[in-house]
C-alpha cells in the first residue's frame, strides 16, 4: 500500500452503513467546518464528471481550467482521480511537490497561476498504486478541500474519476454550495448511455448540470480540410437536446493533443491558436455565462 502523507484515518465503524449523501457524522463536523471556511473564498465550484473512462475527462478539466484562467479568472484544480491522477502531467507540473506551513498545504502553481492539488504530487514512484477503500478516499477529499490554502478563487475545478461511485458522492456531500457538474462524453452510443447515468446521478444528489462537453467530436484532415466524424456525428448534441441540458462545446481531435499530454506539456498553452484551444475558450465563455450570467466574449 502507498504511504499516506496526509495521515488519513479511517472513520470509526458504525453499526449501520451510512448514506454518504446525508449529513456527516458528528465526529467529522470539525473537519467540515474547515471546508466551509476554505470554500467560502471560492466563488464557483465545478465538478467534471464522465460516465465512463477513456473520454478525455482530465484533458477537458485541465484545458478548461487554463481557458478560464486565460479569461482572467482565478482558478484552482483539485484532482480526486486517486487511482489515475493525470492532471499534473497535462498541466506540465508533474514532479513538483506540495509544501505545508502553519496555515495548511500549499498547492503547486501551474500555467496562468492555476493552483493545483493532486495525489500524484505525493506518490514516491511512478508505479506506486493507491490502494484505498472508499472511506479513506472520502477523508482525502475532505483534506484536499479543507486543509489546502486555496485562497481567493473565482473557480475551483474538481476532476473526478469515471463513474458515480465513492468520490462523486463524497464531492456532492462535502463541497458546500457546489455550483454544478459538467459532464464529458464522446460521440459514441456507449459513451452517451453512460452520460445519461451521470445526469441521473446529478439529479439524485440535487446538483445542477451546467452542461455537456463532447470531446473527440471530429477530425479535420490537414491536407483537404474535410471534417471526419470518427466516432459518430452530433450524438452529444442530440443527447443534450433530449435531456434538456446545454451542449457547452465540441472539442475536435488533434494528434498534437496526445503528443503534448505524453510530453507533459500543456496543450492549451502550447497551441493557443489551434481549433481545440479556441473551442475551450468558447466553452469557458459559456461556463462564465451560465454561472455568472455574463459573457467574456468581445464579440
What does this molecule look like?
It is built from 10 helices and 12 strands. It has 299 residues and is an alpha/beta fold. It has one domain (31-289): P-loop containing nucleotide triphosphate hydrolases (Rossmann fold, 3-Layer(aba) Sandwich). The chain has an 8-stranded mixed beta sheet, with helices on both faces. This is Iron-sulfur cluster carrier protein. Binds and transfers iron-sulfur (Fe-S) clusters to target apoproteins. Can hydrolyze ATP. One of its GO terms (cellular component) is cytosol.
Which structural class do you get from the secondary structure elements? alpha/beta
Helix content: 25-40%
For this structure, what is the CATH homologous superfamily?
Answer: P-loop containing nucleotide triphosphate hydrolases
Mean pLDDT value: 87
Classify the beta-strand content into a percent band: 15-25%
Summed up, the domain count is 1
Q: And the CATH topology?
A: Rossmann fold
Any idea of the CATH class?
Answer: Alpha Beta
CATH architecture: 3-Layer(aba) Sandwich
Which overall shape is indicated by the principal axes computed on the Cα atoms? globular
| End-to-end CA span | 53 Å
Oligomer category = single chain
The count of strands amounts to 12
Family: Belongs to the Mrp/NBP35 ATP-binding proteins family.
GO cellular component, one term: cytosol
Subunit structure: Homodimer.
Organism: Metallosphaera yellowstonensis MK1
